[in-house]
Design brief:
With 86 residues, the protein is of the alpha+beta class. The chain contains three helices and three strands, in the order αβαββα. A three-stranded antiparallel β-sheet has the order 1-3-2, covered by helices on one side. β2 and β3 form a beta hairpin. α2 packs across α3.
Length: 86
């Protein structure tokens, strides 16, 4: 609890506005095949981090996520949505 509230204060400090603390996280999700999958995957990531940038490439089955969220949390959300990263 304590670490969560201090993290929030940290992130809302004006000093940090404009600083890019997001990281690129790449996933390979072979089970994606159509626009519905793209939507479902994007939505799953956004449930973890509504600010995340999600870029899905159906040809390569790769998902690029730009987010400050924990990678494992995104993996969990993807698995829950039915998209197991390889
Ligand atoms: Cu699909």
């Amino acid at each position: 609890m304590m670490s969560m509230s201090s993290a929030r204060v940290f992130l809302t400090l004006p000093l940090w506005e404009g600083l890019d603390c997001f990281v690129m996280i790449q996933f390979n999700i072979p089970s994606m095949s159509c626009g519905h999958c793209v939507k479902a995957v994007t939505q799953a990531v956004h449930e973890v981090d509504s600010q995340a940038k999600v870029d899905v490439n159906l040809d390569t089955k790769k998902v690029d996520v730009e987010s400050g969220a924990d990678r494992q949390k995104i993996v969990d959300a993807l698995v829950e949505a039915g998209y197991q990263p390889a």
